[in-house]
Amino acid sequence: MTIKILSSIMTKGKTTGRELFERIGCPSRILAPMVDQSELAWRILSRRYGATLCYTPMFHAKLFATSEKYRRDMWCELDGNSDIDRPLIVQFCANDPEYLLAAAKLVQDKCDAVDLNLGCPQGIAKKGHYGSFLMEEWDLIHKLIRTLHDNLDVPVTAKIRVFPEREKTLEYAKMVLDAGAQFLTVHGRLREQKGQKTGLANWNIIKYLRDNLPSETVFFANGNILYPEDISRCMGTIECDAVMSAEGNLYNPGLFNVDHVEEKDKTFPRVDKIVREYFEIVKECRESNASRSAMKSHFFKILRPFLANHTDIRSELASMSAKSSLEEWEEKIVVPVEKTVATIFAQDDIEEKDVITVGGQELWGGAYKSIPYWRCQPYFRPVDGVTGDKRAVEALKANIEDKDDIKKRKAETVLEKTANKDGKTKL
């Protein structure tokens, strides 16, 4: 497909990307769309801790359009409520324009835009033929986006992953914009970078896209956000409009509290406080089946460092289910966590223990922090006993050593050629 971004891409009367961005307050901290994890209750909590725009979980367009049960499980009357859940972008995965449009029309009155997922790398996306497994089918992607662009009352946006080649990624991004996407979110990882192979996101290629796409493009960056300081560092490095976080937010919703980086209770909140606050929100969202279903997974992530030290609570949490009553959740999980942390803070030397220390600047540009286990914090996925933070540093060191070695060999070759030319050395 030949790509040429059209200067008059917008349908007459429809909001452009920049107009939409300004209308919703120029949000700079975005809760990412995630499978079953960015549901209503979690969005409400994330907004309280600094998120200025939220995406729904990824919805399956065909199921959303055709199954009343699926819609009931994923969506309720409070979703997109103007008082508690805006601005909001609803994300769908799809491979059929008609089903995508039918699904989007069911929510267009309850959101600010509809997003097409082009980044999901999971096996279920491969099996269902959507997400990042459409990356090679540019004509289909163009048709999916253009169908929404031409027929919805609200704008369409898109979230993509990158190719190994930055020039190909740029052409891909141009195609997505040409189809009618009004916001472009770039996750700086390859399709293969998932799970234990996640690795670092490539900010260089995201920056390359930002520099080579039209300046009016509303552009979001996604990847490598561990701490609140990383948000401003990312925006300064890439010059993007906003930064999106998925896993970082799940383990620490305080991640978005960039205005309170010196206040540990806001940026690295105590797990007992977050568990209680989130639980009370779930109670208020009783009609949201998705919020009840997601609660166990959220608790495990919030409490990850805590549970390793209090295995009795971990065992209780493992035994809970979406069918457990809210009273059981409070009695078996919420209250025990509160009591345990209260005991920790009753220690005479708690002020000495409850300290966050910052390490030196790492090769990736930021610094790792040591955080007490009773506070929310990033998760570094271990592989063969080596955690993700250590793997990242080792990979960057190896990359630098490889580059230095290449430079050294090139320099030696130049010297050899020069010596040969002068007749001083015979190889």
CATH class of the domain at 17-261: Alpha Beta
Structural class, judged by helices and strands? Answer: alpha/beta
Number of helices: 19
Q: How many β strands by DSSP? A: 10
Largest sheet: 8 strands, parallel, barrel
CATH superfamily of the domain at 17-261: Aldolase class I
Q: What assembly state would you assign to the polypeptide chains in this entry?
A: single chain
Global geometry: globular
Low-pLDDT residue intervals, each spanning 5 or more residues: 1-12, 423-427
Shape-level CATH architecture of the domain at 17-261: Alpha-Beta Barrel
CATH fold descriptor of the domain at 17-261: TIM Barrel
Q: Strand-residue fraction? A: 5-15%
Give the distance, in angstroms, between the N- and C-terminal Cα atoms: 50 Å
Structure description:
By secondary structure, the protein is α/β, with parallel strands linked by helices. The protein contains 19 helices and ten strands. Strands 1-2-3-4-5-6-7-8 form an eight-stranded parallel β-barrel, surrounded by seven helices. Strands 9-10 form a two-stranded antiparallel sheet. The N terminus and C terminus are likely disordered. This is tRNA-dihydrouridine(16/17) synthase [NAD(P)(+)]. InterPro entries: Aldolase_TIM, DUS-like_FMN-bd, tRNA_hU_synthase_CS. Keywords: Flavoprotein, FMN, mRNA processing, NAD, NADP, Oxidoreductase, tRNA processing.
How would you summarize this macromolecular structure in one to three sentences?
It is an enzyme of class 1 (oxidoreductase). This protein is an alpha/beta fold and 427 residues long. It has 19 helices and ten strands.
